[in-house]
Every structure is written in structure tokens, then in C-alpha cells.
Write a structure and sequence with these properties.
Layout: H1 3-29, H2 36-58, E1 60-65, E2 76-79, H3 85-93, E3 97-102, H4 111-117, E4 121-123, H5 129-144, E5 148-151, H6 169-177, E6 181-186, E7 202-208, H7 219-237
Parallel strand pairs: 1-7, 2-5, 2-6, 3-4, 3-5
Antiparallel strand pairs: 6-7
Length: 245
């Protein structure tokens, strides 16, 4: 498809994305008196709208495989991280959850305000062991309150075809909390590439795996099983011809 046409479509998407953010962000502050769950439900409408708008303007759709694998109650989701897309779409696909993220994101105007209202687990990644202790302490509280926890074990967005070491934090939380771990794979980076203005039409595939046992297992065992499952799924749903766009 002609790059100029793709650029024009993406420009329309980004224009409305920006306007919707400027409208939602200050209104979100008015939800402060309500419960975090009600704030989540309100703020997630922004994400739902923009995922819908992305489909209308840029032709980016998604298909879910394995939705029946979602357990009830608190769950630890360990997901591939390729794009900004999944941070929005997962609010529609998965049950209410909090993210584990770097606290610097709170400083981002508008976007950071909305994040803070949802009370995520915001850690200082330079704090080392103290950051892991914080993740475990706050993560267990969230899980016991029937919230799920979303963790990107790669720690950053990774371009399609690239592989980096999976960090142990999520697996340590799972080992100590003894809550189920659900791995998630997707190929969003092939349609919404990292740092790319242009969005490419097509269907993103999201694969939700069966829960991985965490009780009585070492974090290294858990993360190895999760990594093997995710990377196996990635090899099946990825298309090398779409890499590097």
C-alpha cells in the first residue's frame, strides 16, 4: 500500500487520538472520588475508543485465540511487549488488571495522570532488589483484592524478530504469591511498530495460554516455561516479511 496513503490514514488516527487524550485526561481527574475499579472502567473507554478508531482509520484489527484460558479471580499475566497497542487493547481483552511499570511514566502529561489514577505498581527499575520486593509486596495485595497483574517480562518494547532475556520479577511474584500465571503472545509490533508514526493494516493475533502452575516452583522454572511457550507461539504467528517496516 502506498506509503503516502498510509501516512495520511495514520495522521487522521493520531489527530483524534490526541484530541481524545486531551478530553479524557482532565475528565478522568473527576473520577477520583470513585473506586479504582470504576475509574478503570471509565478510563478503559478511552482505550476501547482508540482501538476502534485504529480499526476504522488504519484497518488494524485483532483476533483472539485461547480466551477460554482466562481464569477467574486474580491472575498474573506475563506478556510479549512489542507495541503501544497491547497496553490499550488488553484493557478490552483481559479482566481488570494493573500494570507493573516504571514510575517515570507518571511524569508524562495527560497519559501519566490517567495511569496514576489506576494505582499501578510503579517501580524504580534502578533500585535492584528493592524494586523486586516492592513488586512482590504490592502485587500480592492486588491479587488478593481480586485484581490481576500485567507484567512485560522483557521489560521494554522489543521489535519483531528480536529476543532478549526475560526478567525474573513476574516469576518471583508468582512463586511467592502462588497465583496462576497466564502467558500471552501477540504480533502487534508488525502492525504498530515501535516508534513508528505509520500504522499498517492487518489483523493482530493475540494468543492466551493455559495457566502455568506456580505453587512450589522456583522462579527460574516458571519463567523458562513461560518464555518457551511465548516464543514458540511467536514463531507461529509472526511474519518475517512485516519486520522492520
Amino acid at each position: 500500500m502506498n506509503k503516502i496513503f498510509l501516512y495520511f490514514r495514520s495522521l487522521i488516527f493520531w489527530s483524534v487520538f490526541l484530541v481524545s487524550t486531551l478530553i479524557f485526561a482532565p475528565v478522568t481527574l473527576l473520577t477520583f472520588p470513585f473506586s479504582v475499579l470504576n475509574r478503570y472502567r471509565f478510563i478503559s473507554q478511552w482505550a476501547r475508543f482508540n482501538i476502534w478508531w485504529l480499526k476504522i482509520t488504519c484497518g488494524v484489527r485483532f483476533n483472539i485465540i485461547g480466551q477460554e484460558n482466562l481464569p477467574e479471580g486474580g491472575t498474573i499475566f506475563l506478556s510479549k511487549h512489542q507495541s503501544t497497542w497491547e497496553t490499550m487493547a488488553f484493557q478490552q481483552i483481559l479482566p481488570p488488571h494493573v500494570w507493573v511499570l516504571k514510575r517515570e511514566l507518571f511524569k508524562v502529561p495527560f497519559f501519566g495522570w490517567g495511569l496514576k489514577m489506576l494505582k499501578p505498581i510503579a517501580i524504580d527499575r534502578s533500585a535492584g532488589r528493592r524494586a523486586v520486593d516492592q513488586l512482590v509486596r504490592q502485587g500480592i495485595k492486588k491479587l488478593e483484592s481480586n485484581w490481576s497483574v500485567m507484567i512485560f517480562p522483557e521489560g521494554t518494547r522489543v521489535k519483531p524478530g528480536q529476543n532478549i532475556r526475560y526478567k525474573l520479577g513476574g516469576a518471583i511474584l508468582a512463586s511467592q504469591a502462588k497465583f496462576p500465571v497466564v502467558p500471552v503472545a501477540h504480533n502487534a509490533g508488525e502492525f504498530w511498530p515501535k516508534h513508528s508514526f505509520i500504522k499498517y493494516p492487518g489483523t493482530i493475533t493475540v494468543v492466551i495460554g493455559k495457566p502455568v502452575k506456580s505453587y512450589g516452583r522456583k522462579p527460574e522454572e516458571i519463567i523458562e516455561e513461560v518464555r518457551d511457550w511465548i516464543e514458540t507461539q511467536m514463531s507461529e504467528i509472526s511474519d518475517e516479511s512485516r519486520w522492520g517496516r
